[in-house]
């Protein structure tokens, strides 16, 4: 284990990234535990207020991100300072992204249906950083051999193609696929060649006069959402807690 850690993490200079990821995930987990205890009225915790104003934890999170980010830039890559500032940055990022939905909606939607976006963003962020830590590089550069890396034209072609695939997936309404496709090119390629989701820019532009394509797109999206919406919601509820019942969507009348 020690040899693996030194060869794959410390020697390539990835220790700050590992510490940032660990502190990010741990901060999010601890924050969610505390907020759920506060919500249930248990434990010694309570909301932080100053003069009647509720101070959300995104505020100290922003401060820590600024300190950790600038500190990491100013410190040496392999020094103790870089590792320490990486931890500070990870803690700040965990606090900020835990309230991502609040920043997006500019409203306190923490325990509402819209608040699920915070959990989703945290999971996606942790997964992307984990892939980068495992050695995946943006736009598939990690798939190139040393000879190809020395060939500037090959690198530019590879990056360009993978960037186009990611853009195509995004235009087809497959945001998660496009994001992960930046790191894992095969994912972007799959998203680029599959049917677009209804309402996406690609569907509005190319399916407008193709009723059969529109019907296939709507049917595939319906089947996909029906299959995965339930498990995804349960996973989000397990991590972040269920939204308030009064904020849950009302099912359509039968």
TrEMBL record:
The keyword Transmembrane helix applies. The chain crosses the membrane at residues 15-34, 54-73, 80-101, 121-141, 153-171, 177-196. Keywords: Membrane, Transmembrane, Transmembrane helix. Residues 235-254 are annotated as: Disordered. Signal peptide: none annotated. This is Integral membrane protein. It comes from Streptomyces avermitilis.
């Amino acid at each position: 284990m020690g040899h693996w850690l030194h060869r794959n993490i410390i020697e390539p200079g990835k220790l700050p990234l590992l510490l940032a990821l660990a502190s990010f995930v741990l901060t999010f987990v601890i924050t969610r535990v505390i907020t759920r205890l506060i919500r249930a009225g248990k434990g010694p915790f309570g909301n932080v207020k100053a003069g009647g104003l509720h101070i959300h934890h995104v505020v100290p999170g922003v401060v820590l991100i600024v300190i950790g980010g600038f500190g990491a830039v100013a410190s040496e890559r392999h020094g103790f300072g870089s590792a320490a500032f990486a931890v500070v940055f990870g803690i700040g990022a965990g606090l900020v992204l835990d309230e991502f939905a609040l920043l997006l909606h500019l409203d306190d939607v923490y325990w509402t249906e819209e608040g699920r976006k915070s959990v989703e963003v945290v999971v996606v962020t942790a997964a992307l950083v984990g892939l980068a830590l495992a050695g995946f590089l943006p736009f598939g550069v990690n798939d190139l051999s040393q000879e190809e890396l020395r060939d500037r034209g090959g690198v530019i072609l590879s990056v360009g193609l993978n960037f186009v695939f990611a853009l195509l997936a995004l235009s087809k309404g497959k945001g998660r696929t496009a994001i992960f496709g930046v790191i894992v090119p095969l994912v972007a390629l799959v998203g680029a060649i599959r049917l677009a989701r209804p309402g996406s820019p690609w569907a509005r532009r190319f399916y407008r006069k193709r009723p059969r394509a529109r019907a296939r797109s709507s049917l595939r999206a319906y089947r996909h959402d029906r299959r995965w919406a339930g498990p995804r919601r349960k996973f989000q509820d397990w991590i972040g807690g269920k939204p308030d019942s009064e904020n849950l969507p009302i099912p359509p009348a039968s």
